[in-house]
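Private note to self, pasted from the team thread so I don't lose it. Backbone tokens:
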């Protein structure tokens, strides 16, 4: 880049810094039950896709409304434990099913005709309401089984006309025996079932229900009992459990609802593998496997706050898998453990995985508040910290082969992300070690103090006119991961970093570009940035962009979850990104920083336009408690309750840190 071009870029950024792209009108609206609904108007055709998961299956529904007003659906069903050959990262059996169930139904001896979709609702299931000729209305409810290896669909057909109609719904069963040479366990049986067998007169106002299932089995496995109401009740019970814990209450219904949806996607993508419960990103690619970033770093530190037992167990399971690879030679721990825990993937070399694991395991152990679990994880935390220490370069920062983007963008021989995670892990280890009565914590504290200075000396730089960070030595183009220090309590360069993040060089209508001048965006960096901007006290700036982002993702054209990336992956609803959205609230807006098994510091960041905010049924630090923040005579009144009783009720200044012991 010539000096003239650099000057032009800097002037452009200064002139337009802080401006948000125009907000598009929303396709979806929040409904009275907490879900979101698309009321179909003339704005068709429109297509979208959404992933939903259970313990033994995941389904990507590719759905939409065509130009005539009819519903379109293609189901991509994934069976993570039906392994294919070669048994690698992507070896989950997948099939697409385009069965048109309503086309199999006959009314008065003729097919249903002229469908017009009235509305589609998402609330952890997908509910589609349509009308056909002859006064026939149809409701579809689509969802995965919570415990069985099948995806389920419930259909309710109602006669809204003024005359009786004759209805016929067939029983249909399709069986596929897959090629035995392509399956780890030989041939698999894929069974599609339309459970109809109905032929009756339907008087005006009467309804009839039937169901469809798409299931997969190994040889010798018994077929599941096909009970649609039992399966639907189980799915609704799971959503109710997740929505009933860690409840966000603010004056902004979009943020409240986006948070509620993020809990679903973050928690549902856990698979019951031979290697234990394994959280998986999803996206028709990543199942029955774990990663040092998605699981160890992103989602696991969140699970204790949610109090979802399966989530907490999956987190512990993932750390125990990584701990299997500790070694006396301090060779790298693999980036990913795949195929239900029996193999590894390490294709990008050392991505800073030890720092990711140390960061996540120490935060998870602190927030969980279980001494026995913390003791179990302590050797892994010690090992990964020592690994990072042994890989410090001559300038005091952590060297690695790549970063979590695995070579998609340059990361040099040492990157800002890895060293920042190591810094936070050292601080967490001090807190955890003291809680466990470990000696030698002064060493970690001194290492953290020195590392913070070395991070600034090595990475601190003026890039494209912003006195922020170079992501790696020699980096002269802005990168979104310069937000990382803000998430670990390093605020020395916060003003220029925030200006750079929200300049038009990085910020777009889709969030942060990975690298200025590219077209690629990954939601994970946007989610980290928003958390960090809240945490460092730039509340109003963070709030503007959080509102914009939340509206786009929850109510826009591709809903209702945070996504992975674009153009890679076609904006898949990878699960851990939803956990990162939740952490914007817990660690950013509420500023919670674990300091012990039963203690934390927090700095609430209440936006000026809000009079209050609260988190209820927080399940961390070995307790269940509520946290409320509200304005009171120019200060913030903070109330924390356990079992309905105040354990803290005080007024504090804006930005004041509060220490809590439960």
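Design output:
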């Amino acid at each position: 880049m010539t000096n003239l071009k650099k000057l032009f870029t800097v002037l452009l950024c200064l002139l337009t810094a802080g401006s948000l792209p125009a907000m598009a009108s929303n396709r979806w609206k929040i409904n009275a039950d907490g879900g979101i609904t698309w009321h179909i108007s003339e704005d068709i055709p429109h297509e979208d896709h959404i992933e939903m998961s259970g313990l033994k299956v995941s389904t990507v529904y590719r759905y939409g409304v065509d130009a005539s007003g009819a519903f379109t659906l293609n189901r991509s069903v994934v069976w993570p434990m039906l392994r294919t050959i070669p048994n690698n990262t992507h070896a989950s059996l997948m099939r697409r099913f385009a069965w048109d169930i309503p086309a199999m139904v006959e009314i008065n001896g003729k097919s249903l005709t002229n469908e017009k979709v009235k509305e589609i609702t998402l609330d952890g299931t997908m509910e589609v309401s349509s009308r056909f000729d002859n006064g026939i209305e149809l409701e579809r409810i689509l969802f995965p089984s919570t415990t069985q290896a099948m995806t389920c669909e419930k259909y309710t057909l109602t006669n809204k006309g003024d005359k009786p109609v004759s209805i016929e719904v067939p029983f249909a069963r399709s069986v596929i025996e897959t090629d035995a040479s392509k399956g780890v366990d030989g041939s698999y049986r894929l069974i599609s079932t339309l459970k109809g067998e109905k032929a009756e007169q339907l008087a005006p106002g009467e309804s009839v229900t039937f169901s469809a299932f798409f299931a997969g089995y190994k040889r010798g496995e018994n077929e599941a009992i096909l009970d649609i109401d039992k399966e639907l009740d189980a799915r609704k019970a799971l959503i109710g459990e997740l929505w009933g814990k860690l409840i966000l209450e603010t004056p902004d219904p979009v943020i409240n609802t986006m948070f509620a949806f993020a809990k679903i996607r973050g928690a549902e993508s856990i698979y019951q593998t031979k290697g234990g419960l394994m959280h998986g990103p999803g996206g028709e690619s990543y199942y029955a496997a774990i990663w040092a970033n998605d699981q160890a770093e992103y989602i696991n530190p969140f699970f204790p706050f949610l109090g979802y037992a399966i989530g907490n167990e999956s987190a512990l399971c993932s750390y125990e898998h990584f701990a299997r690879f500790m070694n006396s030679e301090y060779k790298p721990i693999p980036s990913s453990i795949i195929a239900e825990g029996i193999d590894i993937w390490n294709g990008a070399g050392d991505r800073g995985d030890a720092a990711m694991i140390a960061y996540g395991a120490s935060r998870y152990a602190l927030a969980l508040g279980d001494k026995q679990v913390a003791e179990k994880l302590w050797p892994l935390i010690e090992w990964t910290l020592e690994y990072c220490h042994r890989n410090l370069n001559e300038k005091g920062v952590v060297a690695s082969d790549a970063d979590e983007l695995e070579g998609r963008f340059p990361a040099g021989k040492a990157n800002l992300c890895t060293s920042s995670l190591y810094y936070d892990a050292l601080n967490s280890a001090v807190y955890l070690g003291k809680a466990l009565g470990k000696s030698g914590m002064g060493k970690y504290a001194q290492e953290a103090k020195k590392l913070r200075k070395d991070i600034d000396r090595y990475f601190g730089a003026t890039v494209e006119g912003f006195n922020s960070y170079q992501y790696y030595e020699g980096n002269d183009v802005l990168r979104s991961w310069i937000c990382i220090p803000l998430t670990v309590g390093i605020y020395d360069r916060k003003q220029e970093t925030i200006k750079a993040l929200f300049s038009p060089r990085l910020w777009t209508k889709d969030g942060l570009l990975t690298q200025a001048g590219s077209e690629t965006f990954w939601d994970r960096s946007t989610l980290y940035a928003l958390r960090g901007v809240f945490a460092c006290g730039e509340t109003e700036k963070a709030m503007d962009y959080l509102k914009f982002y939340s509206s786009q993702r929850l109510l826009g054209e591709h809903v209702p979850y945070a996504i992975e990336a674009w153009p890679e992956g076609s904006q898949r609803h990878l699960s851990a990104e939803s956990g990162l959205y939740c952490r914007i609230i817990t660690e950013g807006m509420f500023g919670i920083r674990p300091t012990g098994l039963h203690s934390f510091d927090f700095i609430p960041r209440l936006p000026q336009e809000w009079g209050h905010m609260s988190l209820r049924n927080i399940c961390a630090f070995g307790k269940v408690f509520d946290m409320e923040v509200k304005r009171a005579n120019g200060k913030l009144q903070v109330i924390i309750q356990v079992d309905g009783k105040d354990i803290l009720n005080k007024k504090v200044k804006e930005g004041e840190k509060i220490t809590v012991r439960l």
